[in-house]
Amino acid sequence: MTAALALGSALGAGLWLMLMGQPLGRPRPKLSARLGRLSVSERIELEESASPAGAPMFRWALLERLLRPLLEDAGRAASGLLRRLGLEAGDLDRRLALGWPGMSAPQFRGQQLATGAVAALALPAMNALGAHPFGPWPVWLWAGAFALGFAAPSWQLASRLAKRERAIRAELPAALDLFVIAASAGLSPEQALHEAGRRLDGVLGEALREVVREAGLGTASDAEGLARLAAREGVPELRSLASAWQLSHQQGLPLAPAMLSLAETVRDRRRAQLLEEGGKAAVRMLFPVTLFIFPVFLVVLLYPAGVELLGLGT
After folding, report:
1. How much is the CA Rg of the chain, to the nearest whole Å?
2. Tens digits of per-residue pLDDT, 223-250?
3. φ and ψ at residue 133, rounded to 5 degrees
4. What is the pLDDT of residue 17?
5. Quick count: other Cβ atoms within 10 Å of Cβ 4?
6. Measured distance CA(286)–CA(215) in Å, rounded
7. What is the pTM of this model?
8. What confidence tens digit (pLDDT) does each residue in 261-314 have?
């Protein structure tokens, strides 16, 4: 009797699961939503909304289960406090999406609190262990260590964004040359954009391929995609490219002269930046030369003269 009841319950549960798994009676998704999943940006947004937890913060699953909820809650509290104080960066989500994909704002703030706490607790731990060669570490150094640890993820994010911006600026002249060549060969602006995205392999090439996919799906035109790309990346040269593309598209002007003029402007600006960086490097070289090379040079130069003078004096 018991076996028959167990078997009947199992069969009934299986039949119920099969019936509930059928699409009968469910609302069908709209065509716009189905097309939206083909879009790169909208698919990323849907995946992020479906999995709000984001990327894992720890390598070990035990730490992920124990510490991640605490850090995320602490990060939300820190974000709220910074927002009330007027110190919260409004574009933090955009910057994280570009420089640290998979990292949400609460996770980032929690990571800042974690690194700050580790840096601050290191000094009292050294006091407890007797590792204080210049005396016990004072409390104000604890606060300074916490501030440095809290700022370390922000510096890392800024470094990643600067690296991405340098990569885009380095690829932009080649992209403009490809636009000029393609337009001079008689290709349409859409075909020129497709060729440039296909031939570039870096960050800008991937972004241009995304613009081409958006235009192919009909969610945005190529001009609108370039404008979104310029707004998302925040690079002035991309804004100039989007403006020139939009102007050429609206007024029916040929694309090649506008891209050629913009390429010359970008190269002149890049050349001026390189000259400026070279001048700054020359100034920075004065410090190691003054501190390390010049004293040694004086010793080598004056030591023989000092020996000769001492020999003459005796």
Report:
1. 31
2. 888 888 888 888 888 888 888 888 877 7
3. -65, -25
4. 52
5. 8
6. 52
7. 0.68
8. 888 888 888 788 777 777 777 777 777 777 777 777 777 777 777 777 776 555
> Is 262 buried (19+), middle (13-18) or exposed (0-12) by CB count in 10 A?
buried
Structural tokens at position 43:
């698919």
Contacts of 211-218 with CB under 8 Å at 24 or more apart are 213/39, 213/40, 214/39, 214/40, 214/41, 215/190, 217/35, 217/38, 217/39, 218/35
The CA distances from residue 107 to 57, 89, 98, 131, in Å, are 8, 15, 15, 33
The pair of three-digit structure tokens given for residue 188, joined into one six-digit string: 């349409």
In sequence order, the β-bridge partners of residue 133 are: 135
